User: Fold this.
Amino acid sequence: MSARFRETWRDTIRAVDRRPGDSWRDRAAHHGARGLLVLLLAALLPFLFPRSPLPEAVTLSEGAVANQDVIAAFEFVVPKPQSRLAAERAESERVVAPVYSLVPEATDSARALTRTFFGGVDSTFADSEADHTTYFSDRYGLQLTEEQEGFLAVENERNSLSTALDRAYAELLPRGVAPILAVPGPAPGLVIVRTPDGDRRIPSDSLQTVGGFLEEALAFAPTDLSLAGFQLYQNLLFRFTVPSLRFDSEATEFARAQARTAVDTTFGTVLEGERIIAAHERVSDRDMLLLHAYNEALAERGLASLGSRRRTAVGSFLFGTLMLGLFGAVLMLFRPLIYRDARSYLLVMGLVAFGLIGASVVYRVEFPPELVPIVLMAIPLAALWDGLVSLIAVVVTSVILAGLTELNAEYYPFVFLAAGAVAALGVRGLRKRTHGWILIAAITGAYLVAGFSVGLLESLPLRVPAETVAWGLVAATLYTFLAIGAAVPLLEKATGISTDQTLLELSDLNAPLLRELSRKAPGTYAHSIGVANLAEAACLSVGANALLARAGVYYHDIGKMENPQFFVENQPKGRNPHDRLPPARSAAIIRDHVRDGLRIAAEHRLPPFIHDCIREHHGTSVILYFLDKARSESPDADVDSADFAYSGPKPQTRETAIVMLADGVESATRVLQDPTPERIRATIDAIVQARIEEGQLDQCPLTLRDLERTKDSFARILIGMYHRRIEYPSGVRAREEILPADSQSVGDLQLPVVAGPGVSSDAAS
Assistant:
């Protein structure tokens, strides 16, 4: 059971770096490892970009001396204490003018009461048997003296008293008479009297109350009244006066509520960066008030507690997981080769992490934001993989910086995005390392256009985009040369991926190894150049990497330098060392040029793709010439075809498959006696069909359409090479005959073309 467990565990580990199979365990290991890397990178973000490097609650006491400045980390309001707020509201309520409403019906009511009273008096005195004292006491609550009853008994006296009361009510009550205790609470300075003609404000001490009305109404008493009559007049005024002003509690309470609401609940706002308490000064009561408000604001925002900081960190982690997870999903869906290769995926995510770590360093040491190494991240990604991967990485990094830093989110992320996008897409045209200056100019132009366009949109001072251009030039120059001169070469070694610059250097025919090949095996050298021309044209026709194919072809036969005389293209006429060797030995020598080529490539530290071209350009094909020779020499022997086959593997990419086809086609067409277009096309078809039937193209992604385009490209190049010559005038012809008939001009070199007996590894297979 333990052995089976260990085997299962090893299979699971191996699934991390290969295409996941049908097993759920393999898929979980494959995708889980990549998801775990995303989570690890996202977990770094709260530490790289802490959202609140800020303050915990500040504790000081009144009268103490502060040991440092307390600066507001954000804008907050300073609320008034409840006791202070209640006192201010009470004060504002106290000065609210009470509202009185005039009651016009009060005059009629008072006059009606007096008329009713005197009507009853008339009836009472007309009845000789009526008890006058009981009537006045029970009916109106009046305790009259005998003199006062005698006064009322006289009709003329009654009429004069009734007339005086009626006049007093008619003239004085319409002006407004308030009850004596009309306004609850402290006395205000003004009152508002609301009449049908409008509201008027009067001093509160000018408000006519019942007491004042009675004093003024006494003037309406008849001058000839006796003492008993005057006292009766005074009593009746008290008894029948109806106040004509009514305290409007609803309107007054509404006005008071407005006054209470109008009181500001705060002392004002403290701005971000404003000093709350000065260092080395005593803390006053006002300072304590501000400090208390600041601590409460910290608590509300959760900055004063460890739990809130954890919530902020969780938010940063989730945000980073979302953005980095989207980037990983893009790789899985649109760049599956990068996603499946664990090393490539790790390096791509590592470069994104490098960009974020570099941004964190710039942010913490307060360098200019333009120095964020977005360009240093974008160039290697584009050079080693492609511009789309680099562009998406730039977008993801810019969004993360916009969300997690306190930089101007409406300015700098767009500047980063523009500069990074130009760097990502501009690497495509970088054919020489000296072209870096063009890329630097393009990146600086991106800083300029992005800085001024966003700066004008946001109405920023012109100083801001001007500084962006200046620092952008510094960043573009520094990071471009670091990327081209250091980062890309190091990553090429780590990934085994060859950039265009490296391929161009390898394709230089003056490279030491190629010059050595031209000296030791000139025929192989010429053959390699011819194959390179065919392979490059075919790759261009199918959308493969033509530069990669050309560089690979130049070195695919370098192993022939060990024994160049055993290969037909390097043999003089009539000399074939294979004639003296047994077929198996000859086949071994031919096969060994692959092994020797791999050894030489390793010694010269050639890129992995060169190794792939060397080992895959023959695949697992059989050297038929020597196999047939061995069987004919020993018809009774059991000859194993595996002893005459290359070790492979079969071509794995479009480029190596095209190299295989070009290698065979060039060798076969070289020995054609009459290379007419028809024979050339027939030879190409035969070679390609033979490779298909042998199964050599089973593991590469070439389609049938690609094969047709490849054959057309081969035919076009070869027909152009082997066109019929034109008969020249005798002088020209004479100069041409100086060259041997069996030679071919390749540049300034005259290389022999051998079409006689002998065996080439390409033709024989």
